[in-house]
Amino acid sequence: MPERNSPFQHQPCHRRKDKGKKSDQYHHYVPRFILRRYQVGPVRSKAERRRFFRKTGVDPEYVHYWDVAQGTLDVRPIGQVFGTQNLYRDCKNTENVNAIEQKLSMLEGRAAAVIGNLHTALPTNKFSVKRRQLEDLRKFLFIMQYRNVAIKDSYFDEDLNPRMGKCIMHYRQTHGFETPVEAWLGTLQYYLDNSHSQIMTQAAEITDKYGLEYMKKILRGHTSGTEIENLPAISYQSNCGNKYTCIWQAAEGEEFVLTHNGFGLWEGIINGLPCLHDVFVVSPHVVIVFRHKATLQLGINMPAPIVTSALVQIEQPPPEVEYRGCSIFPGQDTCTKMETYRSSKQAEEDVFHFDVKRLTATETMLVNHVFLDNVLHDGSITFASKACMLRTARTYLNPLYFQRNRKVPDFIKLLEDTL
Question: What is the tens place of the pLDDT at every residue in 200-230?
Fold first, then answer.
């Protein structure tokens, strides 16, 4: 039975028959505000899009779209790509089954503003952002990585995750989740109902209680972890607490491709564990990368982690932090004390100063190579410029690189036929 007052309580779906169709929604796993940066033709304001649609009944927003399974290259409406129908209905809320989407849209709006400010700052190669705004961006990107179709069915399936099997079973039983999808949806609700600071503080309290080394053993599957009170908070901390943010800009005249899984692709292995990098394409010109802090040990006089990665050679240090009223981070005795400061009013005025890393053409291709390598047989690719896409696809076939995607030659022919 679920615990009383558990933040994860969730009930099986019993939908009202008269509410189903009216509440159907197409949920994008790549946000529309990202897709608009790849748009074919002029970008219209929200008011202009509404007027155009009311007048013509046609969606005025389109992108280039390679459908791998169908072997087609065409132009498709943004409203019909990179998404799925009713990805996360809040089935326990019979009055508003799309409540989760509405909560996510508020967070998305704040993250979109940060990404917009980043693009405005690109000519300076510098970007500064306050702590809460950066936390909103980190949280939004984490949630977007978590809320995809593949994870929905597999993340909390103990049979598909034997390393964390006992921990997953305990978590589902404790909170009354009968299926992996219910656990996924309830956890998504938890992430949206709690701020970044609240989640990180809850995780810090658990880490201080059991010790950092024990938490590492749980995440590596070396112990069951059934005593952990809040598994989602620990998962969130392992990403947002163990990785720092990098901002990479494509080389002059080059672009980043956007694949069906390119908004939160995992790359690289560190000490036998996946996810050295989390890579998010936010426009043809910019990717945001979460990089494991252990990479900072590479090349210094101490035991270095064992790393396998195509992207680790692209160097970028963490941002410089300007702390409000002090020159160094205040209070580092415990994880809880660190998060107490970070959640304080004073910390809201901390500013993170990023150097935007301008990649070379070779480095830009390394990033695109990773994306193309991971396109699935039923996947898709969007791009801004056909000329850049053709050049990227041809470079991908360079015999010096190992290629896993055997469909690229077909893609090249389609591009050549339309130029």
Answer: 999 999 999 999 888 888 877 778 788 888 9
Per DSSP bridges, beta strands 273-281 and 286-292 are antiparallel
347, 324 in Cβ contact below 8 A?
Answer: yes
Contact between 274 and 266 under an 8 Å Cβ cutoff? The reply is yes
pLDDT one-digit tens code per residue, 299-314: 666 677 889 999 999 9
**Per-10-residue mean pLDDT for the chain, 419 residues long?**
47 41 76 95 79 77 96 94 82 66 93 98 98 98 88 89 87 91 92 96 93 82 83 93 96 97 94 91 98 84 82 95 81 84 93 98 96 95 97 91 88 95
Amino acid at 31: P
Place of tokens 């036929």: 417
Residue 221 tokens read as 């599957």
- Say what the pLDDT of residue 230 is: 92
CA pair distance 297, 407, nearest whole angstrom: 38
Q: Please compute, for residue 140, the number of CA atoms within 13 A of its CA located in the half-sphere on the CB side.
A: 26
Q: Put residue 96 in one of left, alpha, beta given phi > 0 → left and psi -120 to 50 → alpha.
A: beta
Residue 108 neighbours by CB distance under 10 Å = 19
Say how far apart CA 8 and CA 305 lie, in whole Å.
Answer: 35
Could you write out the three-class secondary structure of the chain? CCCCCCCCCCCCCCCCCCCCHHHCCEEECCCHHHHHHHCCCCCCCHHHHHHHHHHHCCCCCEEEEEECCCCEEEEEEHHHCCEEECCCCCCCCCCCCCHHHHHHHHHHHHHHHHHHHHHHHHHHCEEEEEHHHHHHHHHHHHHHHHCCHHHHHHCCCCCCCHHHHHHHHHHHHHHCCCCHHHHHHHHHHHHHHCCHHHHHHHHHHHHHHHCHHHHHHHHCCCCCCCCCCCHHHHHHHHHHCCEEEEEEECCCCCCCCEECCCEEEEEEEECCEEEEEEEEECCCCEEEEEEEHHHHHCCCCCCCCCEECCCCCCCCCCCEEECCCCCCCCCCCCHHHHHHHHCCCHHHHCEEEEECEECCHHHHHHHHHHHHHCCCCCCEEECCCHHHHHHHHHHHCCCCCCCCCCCHHHHHHHHHHHC
Q: How many whole angstroms separate alpha carbon 381 and alpha carbon 392?
A: 12
Do residues 188 and 130 lie in contact, with contact meaning Cβ atoms separated by under 8 Å? no
Task: Let me know: does 276 contact 269? Beta carbons within 8 Å.
Answer: yes
User: For residue 191, which of 141, 252, 122 has the smallest C-alpha distance?
Assistant: 141
